[in-house]
Amino acid sequence: MLVLSRQRDETIMIGDNVEITVVDIRGDKVRLGITAPRQVQVHRKEVYEAIRSENATASQVQMDDLDGADKKLRELRSVRRNP
């Protein structure tokens, strides 16, 4: 881990296109401003972990889910063939 000291209104660069600026310091809290391209997602760590967890859960397919989807597709095909 790289540890840097910065004062209010000082900036850290990550690569060529991500800037992190110390906006305010109050007691034990630091407010950061982050400037990054739109394609770079920026989240608080707890939000990022919640998103990853939800994505992992959503990507787990159960056989019952596939069987139900297969049945629906077969029904739709038979309806289209026999109007």
Q: What count of structural domains? A: 1
Shape: elongated
Average pLDDT across residues? 90
Helix fraction?
A: 40-55%
Percent in strands: 15-25%
Number of strands: 3
Helix-strand pattern:
EEEHH
Number of helices in the DSSP assignment? 2
Distance between the termini: 65 Å
Largest sheet: 3 strands, antiparallel
Strand order of the largest sheet: 1-2-3
- Unreliable spans are none
What does this 3D model show about the protein?
The chain has 83 residues and is α+β, with helices and mostly antiparallel strands. The protein has helices at residues 45-59, 63-81; strands at residues 11-14, 18-26, 29-35. Strands 1-2-3 form a three-stranded antiparallel sheet, with no helix packed on it. The longest helix is centred in the C-terminal third of the chain and has 19 residues, at 63-81. The radius of gyration is 24 Å and the shape is elongated.
Write the layout of secondary structure elements.
Layout lengths: L10 E4 L3 E9 L2 E7 L9 H15 L3 H19 L2
Antiparallel strand pairs: 1-2, 2-3
Q: Quick recap of the structure?
A:
The protein is α+β, with helices and mostly antiparallel strands and 83 residues long. It is 41% helix and 24% strand.
Features:
single chain; 83 residues; alpha+beta; 3-stranded antiparallel beta sheet; 2 helices; 24% strand
